[in-house]
Design a protein that fits this description.
Strand order of the largest sheet: 1-2-3-4-5
Shape: globular
Largest sheet: 5 strands, mixed, barrel
Family: Belongs to the class-I pyridine nucleotide-disulfide oxidoreductase family.
Number of strands: 21
Cofactor: FAD
Radius of gyration: 24 Å
Helix content: 25-40%
Number of helices: 14
CATH architecture of the largest domain: 3-Layer(bba) Sandwich
GO biological process, one term: 2-oxoglutarate metabolic process
Main location: cytoplasm
CATH topology of the largest domain: FAD/NAD(P)-binding domain
Number of domains: 3
CATH superfamily of the largest domain: FAD/NAD(P)-binding domain
Catalytic activity: N(6)-[(R)-dihydrolipoyl]-L-lysyl-[protein] + NAD(+) = N(6)-[(R)-lipoyl]-L-lysyl-[protein] + NADH + H(+)
Distance between the termini: 72 Å
C-alpha cells in the first residue's frame, strides 16, 4: 500500500466517500479513512447516515407505517384480518440487512473507482501528513497533496439526561430497541425526535415529546407546521411545546423526568427516554488544536466558499463545517470540492436545499417560508393545494395535508415550497429544480402534470398563487 496520495479524505460518511469516489474518477490517487465501528465492533463506511441514521430509521419508519395502515386503513379498502402480529426482532434484522447492503456497496464502489479504503482513525499531523491507526494493525504515516476533513457529527448529549445506553438513549440507541416501550419519552421535537416518536408510537408506545421551543418546527412554514402537528396529534403523538426538561434519572426500571412549562414544574415516568436535541461537529482525535486547525465557537471547522481551511492543502466538508446537517448537502459538497480541485467551476446552491421529515404524512420543504420571505423584505404572494382535493391521495386513503408555494409578487419567481402530505419527499424534487432554475409560477403553471398523480397537487398550488386553481375554491383571476 502506497503512503503517498493526491487526495486523502478523513471520514467515510456521506461527505467523505462521494468526495473520494469523484476525486478518483477525476484522476486523483485517492484514499479514504473511516473510523466507524458498529455496536458489534465491525467497521463500516457510510457514517451515521447508513449505519445509525437516515437508512435504518427509514427502514423502521416503513415497517411501522405498514403496521399502522394494517390497523387503521385496510378496512376502508375492504381488507380485513385478525392474525397480524409484530415481530420486532425480524423488523430489526431487516433494518440491519438494508444498512449492511449499502455500506458493503461503498467498498464495491471504492474498488470499481480505485479508491483505497482504510478502516481506522486519521489524525492530522500537519505538513500534508496524516497518522493512520487501523482498527487492527500498526500506525502508519500517510502523505497527501490535499487532505479533506469529513468527520461528520455526533448526537448532542445533555448533562441533565445522561445517556446510559439502556433506558436513556441517543438516536442510535432508539433504533435498536428490542421491544416496544409502553411509555416513551423524547426530548426534542425536531426532525429526529418526530421521526423516532412516529416509529414507536405507531408500534404501540404511548409517546410524549418534550420541546423547549415555543414553536413547532420553526424552520418550516408556520401554516404547514401547524397542519403537521395536527396530523401527529390525531395519530396519538403527545407533543408538548415550551417544555424545558430540568433533569432525568434512570432508576433502573424506568426514567423519572422533571420538566417545566410556563413556570410550573411537572413530572413524567417513562420506560425509555430518547435524547434528540440536535447534533454537534465531530473533531475528536483529529488533533485540530495540535495542528492549529481553526474552529468556530461551536466547534465547527472554519472554511471559505471553496471549503478551504486556514491550513495549506487542508479542506473540510459536510456536517463538520456546519450549515444544514443533511446527507445530501454533504454529498454535494464532496462532489463539488473534488471537481473544484480538478479545475471545474462547481458550486453548491445553498438556497435550494431539500429537507424532509419521513413521517406519515411526510413534511418537506425547500427555500423560504412565508415568514422568512417577508422578513427578508419580499412582497409575497402565496398559493396552496390541499390534498383533500387530489384524486390520487383519496385513492390512497391519504388525502391529508397541503402544498404551499411562496412567490415574489413582483417577479413571479418561486421563493419556497413547503408541504405536508403523502410522499411529499418525492414531490419536493420538482420544487428544488424550480428554485435551481429560478422558475416562476408561470413556468410551473404551463408544465403539464399527469393525472391522477400526487404531483399535480404542486401544479394546483402554483395555480392557486394567482387565483387560478381548478380543483380548489379561490378567487378566480380573469
Amino acid at each position: 500500500m502506497t503512503d503517498q496520495y493526491d487526495v486523502l479524505v478523513v471520514g467515510g460518511g456521506p461527505a467523505g466517500y462521494p468526495m473520494a469516489i469523484r476525486a478518483a474518477q477525476l484522476g486523483f490517487k485517492t484514499a479514504c479513512i473511516d473510523a466507524w465501528l458498529n455496536k458489534d465492533n465491525t467497521p463500516a463506511f457510510g457514517g451515521t447516515c447508513l449505519n445509525a441514521g437516515c437508512i435504518p430509521s427509514k427502514a423502521l419508519l416503513e415497517s411501522s407505517e405498514l403496521w399502522h395502515r394494517t390497523q387503521h386503513e385496510l378496512g376502508a379498502h375492504g381488507i380485513s384480518g385478525s392474525d397480524f402480529k409484530i415481530d420486532i426482532a425480524k423488523m430489526q434484522a431487516r433494518k440491519q440487512t438494508i444498512s449492511k447492503s449499502l455500506t458493503g456497496g461503498i467498498k464495491q464502489l471504492f474498488a470499481a473507482n480505485k479508491v483505497t479504503g482504510l478502516e481506522g482513525f486519521g489524525k492530522l499531523l500537519g505538513d500534508g501528513k496524516v497518522e493512520f491507526t487501523p482498527h487492527k494493525g500498526d500506525k502508519q504515516v500517510l502523505s497527501a497533496k490535499t487532505i479533506v476533513v469529513a468527520t461528520g457529527s455526533d448526537p448532542v448529549n445533555l448533562k441533565i439526561a445522561p445517556i446510559d445506553g439502556e433506558n436513556i438513549v441517543d438516536s442510535w440507541g432508539a433504533l435498536d430497541f428490542t421491544e416496544v416501550p409502553q411509555r416513551l419519552g423524547i426530548i426534542g421535537a425536531g426532525v429526529i425526535g418526530v421521526e423516532l416518536g412516529s416509529v414507536w408510537s405507531r408500534l404501540g408506545a404511548k409517546t410524549v415529546i418534550l420541546e423547549a421551543l415555543p414553536t413547532f418546527l420553526p424552520m418550516v412554514d408556520a401554516q404547514v407546521a401547524k397542519e403537521a402537528q395536527r396530523q401527529y396529534a390525531k395519530q396519538g403523538l403527545d407533543i408538548r411545546m415550551g417544555a424545558k426538561v430540568l433533569n432525568a434519572r434512570n432508576t433502573g426500571k424506568a426514567v423519572e423526568l422533571e420538566y417545566e412549562v410556563n413556570g410550573e414544574k411537572k413530572s413524567e415516568t417513562f420506560d425509555k427516554l430518547i435524547v434528540a436535541v440536535g447534533r454537534r461537529p465531530n473533531t475528536r482525535g483529529l488533533n485540530a488544536e495540535g495542528v492549529g486547525l481553526a474552529l468556530d465557537e461551536r466547534g465547527f471547522v472554519k472554511v471559505d466558499a471553496h471549503y478551504k481551511t486556514n491550513l495549506p492543502g487542508v479542506y473540510a466538508i459536510g456536517d463538520v463545517i456546519g450549515g444544514a446537517m443533511l446527507a445530501h448537502k454533504a454529498i454535494e459538497e464532496g462532489v463539488a470540492l473534488a471537481e473544484q480541485l480538478a479545475g471545474h467551476h462547481t458550486q453548491v446552491n445553498y438556497k435550494a436545499i431539500p429537507s424532509v421529515i419521513y413521517t406519515a404524512p411526510e413534511v418537506a420543504w425547500t427555500g423560504l417560508s412565508e415568514e422568512q420571505a417577508k422578513a427578508q423584505g419580499y412582497e409575497v404572494k402565496i398559493g396552496s393545494g390541499p390534498f383533500a382535493a387530489n384524486g390520487r391521495a383519496k385513492a390512497m386513503e391519504a388525502a391529508n395535508g397541503v402544498i404551499k408555494v411562496i412567490a415574489d409578487a413582483k417577479t413571479d419567481r418561486i421563493l419556497g415550497v413547503h408541504m405536508v402530505g403523502p410522499y411529499v419527499s418525492e414531490l419536493l424534487a420538482e420544487a428544488v429544480l424550480g428554485l435551481e432554475f429560478a422558475a416562476t409560477c408561470e413556468d410551473i403553471a404551463l408544465t403539464m402534470h399527469g393525472h391522477p398523480t400526487l404531483s399535480e397537487n404542486f401544479h394546483e398550488a402554483v395555480l392557486s398563487v394567482d387565483g387560478r386553481a381548478i380543483h380548489a375554491v379561490n378567487k378566480v383571476k380573469k
